[in-house]
Specification:
alpha/beta; Collagenase (Catalytic Domain)
Length: about 425
Amino acid sequence: MAERKHQRNLIWAAVIGSVMLCLSNVGGHVRASVLEAAGQPTLVYGDANLADEDAFVLLIFGDGFRADEQALFYEQARTAAVYTMNTSPYDELSRLCKVYAYGTVSVESGALGDHARNVREANEDSRDTCFGSHFWSYGMQRLLSLEPEDELKVEALQEEVLPTADYSILLVNSTVYGGSGGNICVASLHESSMEILLHELGHTVAKLADEYWAGDEYAEEAPNMTTESDPKKVRWSSYVGVDGVGVYPYSHGKEGWYKPSENCKMQYLGKEYEFCDVCKEAIRKAVCEQSSPEAVRRLLGEQDGEITAGNLPQNEEAAGSPGQESLVDAEGQKSVTDGSGAETGHGADLPEEGSMEESPRSSGVGQSVPGEGAGIKENPSVISSDDDISLSTAAVIFVVSAALIVIVNWQGKGRRHRR
């Protein structure tokens, strides 16, 4: 009798576990949970002889790139690095900067919800990608971001493969307009992606605010945002009156908050829009703080003296980009098209494509995705994921199965007692 009871319990566990596993795949997203590291981060921009500890280091990951799309990822990563470092003020500091790429292999291509028409359709998208990047965050189609647990996953991977990196960037394999800023800069492969990436890096690296009104929840003191309206007291007072810098109120009747410019990349996208002088200063400061004083002094040609953002070269001619001989994959330094010049924003509320003043935050890049059979870059640094269910899902199935077995046994005892 006891043996038959034990066998019955095992059968119940198998049946219930199978049912739960099937149900977990209906309308849900069971993602690959195990990332197996392979290879080393690949330097796509910068001087290989400069120690990471002395440099400002960016690490680019990919999401939604299958094994046959790794060549596309490395191409996009290299293009993004070169474009960024050829843009002021990064071009003045490029000798301090290194950019690495580290491939991740997703089971499926793209981003969740990239072609969804509404939140419901986005939630029904069950594609399996390494980091689960998804559109329609907080109900906004163009807000491409990660769940908090997936941000931690990226941060943990950065710490594992390149702990010397200062910030991570996630390039998402979708040509749909979208992105976000924050601890991790996220951008799609939309045609405006390079400009979106620069804007989002402004948030991530220099803690810059949007210079369009992103919403009350994002209003806070920042290098380029303040409640101080007095030109003599504002934190960027030394720049007032130079190159259009002033104290400008935010639009749409948002009283009480001010910005330094009306034509900054933190408000508009497009190569014709530069970072304003105030934002450039904040970026210079951030890059220098992440670099060693010795490396900064070498850039300045000085042996001693205080290192400040203010005494860094501030034009494209000074310091400039490293020469081709000092770059990895120097052939990657090709001219890059401007993209569409669409306006954009940051973090949690992306603006409509082409209209940044009306709503917040943004992202994108632009190249078509190759079809099946695109060759894998020789010797890429790649992480692959297996398609087993996550440990958390398995744990839930086990607990529910065990609970149901207890209930079945209890009901059986009840029936015997009623007899």
